[in-house]
Design a protein that fits this description.
The protein is of the alpha+beta class. It contains 7 helices and 14 strands.
Length: 269
């Protein structure tokens, strides 16, 4: 099992069902174990961290769902009477613990087959981000050029493509950016300009990616265009419907996506 800070560990909740309803899970088994050990519903409830009423309700539910009673109760007395597990209750608890052990072995086996989970951890963190911008790219900082106020940051994306952003020097410090750091480039789809046959064009936009159109969603006013630029990266742009018609965009055709360095937001985990 990995012990690194960012390692992924597997866990799961094990439930025994009866009549398509949850019958016994870890929390109920724990209550039964406490009843067996302490011989008192009051003490068992306290040990399980639940109220006396919840414990009684749970025991009633378990006994109602079981083919044979799992808990034997003696009503009365200051402490609510004696409570113990029946032979059937002891058997069910033992069986559950056996299943639980096998379940843990199964999860341990999966963990060993996963191997190094660092990359999985980073991927899960990336996809857990929630941003309104359609375009989020993961990359590594390969160059930072500072000016008097702003800094130019270059990220190398998957596949080797370079993306340039301009942010303030204060942002560089706040984000702790330096060469070799993982970072994210976020660009709104409305900031993307689409063009064709621009291979030799001279443009002021620092970022120009040539790729293949993979999707065109036409609307009465705007059209969404997706362009695959290599390395598994796709850029989404929203342009006017008339522009899409004039450019003759279609799936499988080639197009260029352009955006200013100042349109890029840099983020880190």
């Amino acid at each position: 099992m990995n012990n690194t800070k960012n390692s992924i560990g597997l866990s799961g909740n094990l439930w025994l069902n009866r009549a398509e309803s949850k019958f016994l899970g870890g929390d109920r088994i724990h209550l039964l174990e406490m009843i067996d050990e302490l011989g008192s519903i009051t003490k068992a409830a306290k040990a399980a961290g639940i109220s006396y009423k919840t414990a009684w309700d749970t025991v009633n539910l378990i006994n109602n769902l079981a083919e044979k009673p799992l808990v034997d109760r003696l009503i009365g007395g200051k402490g609510g009477g004696g409570t113990s597990l029946t032979a059937e209750g002891k058997r069910i608890v033992a069986q559950y613990k056996t299943i639980q052990e096998e379940h843990r072995k199964f999860l341990d086996n999966l963990e060993s087959r996963l191997g190094d989970t660092e990359s999985l951890y980073q991927f899960l963190r990336r996809i857990s981000m929630k941003v309104s911008a359609r375009n989020t790219f993961s990359g590594v900082v390969t160059n930072i050029t500072k000016g008097a106020v702003n800094a130019e940051v270059t990220l190398t994306l998957k596949g080797g493509a370079a993306l340039t952003a301009v942010v303030t020097n204060g942002a560089i410090e706040n984000l702790g950016l330096s060469n070799g750091n993982e970072a994210y480039a976020i660009v709104k789809s409305s900031s993307i300009i689409i063009g064709t046959d621009l291979h030799d064009a001279k443009l002021s936009a620092r970022n120009m990616f040539v790729g293949t159109v993979t999707r065109v969603i036409e609307g009465p006013v705007n059209t969404e265009v997706n362009i695959e630029i290599g390395g598994g990266n796709t850029i989404s742009a929203v342009i006017t419907h008339d522009s899409a018609i004039k450019l003759g965009l279609s799936v499988g055709g080639h197009a260029c996506a352009l955006f200013k360095a100042s349109s890029v937001i840099i983020g880190v985990n």
